[in-house]
């Protein structure tokens, strides 16, 4: 997703190049591709949520890694009932600690936590923000 977002590389091209260098099993690879493809295809909707909860921040101002970690985690939270919300949040926070800026983990945790609190325990998706929000 990062390469698609920052380098404007087509998603399938990214997958082809990455598969040649990864040692992931087929099951792990297929799961990762499914998540990345889903998050990338839904990124416009996910970006609307990110913008809503990232008070004072535009998408362009965010670190590239943060923006894409948020997209992936929100995709998991909204569309993947098989992945607990807490796991999605924790993985995004841990990846931010490893691959982004010093403040990224708190930033990502805050946005995802706000989303989950508003969404509630019902598991029902909240409406994407309109252009007026």
Any idea what the CATH architecture is? Orthogonal Bundle
**How many strand units?**
0
And the CATH topology?
A: N-utilizing Substance Protein B Homolog, Chain A
- Overall number of domains: 1
Backbone shape: globular
The low-pLDDT segments are none
Helices and strands, with pairings:
Layout: H1 2-7, H2 11-21, H3 26-41, H4 43-53, H5 64-79, H6 85-99, H7 104-119
Helix pairs in contact: 3-5, 4-5, 5-6, 5-7, 6-7
Describe this protein's structure.
The protein is mainly α and 133 residues long. It has a single domain (2-119), classed as Orthogonal Bundle (N-utilizing Substance Protein B Homolog, Chain A), CATH 1.10.940. The chain is 68% helix and 0% strand. It has 7 helices and no strands. It has helices at 2-7, 11-21, 26-41, 43-53, 64-79, 85-99, 104-119. α3 (26-41) crosses α5, α4 (43-53) packs across α5 and α6 (85-99) packs antiparallel against α7. It starts with a helix and ends in a 14-residue tail after the last helix.
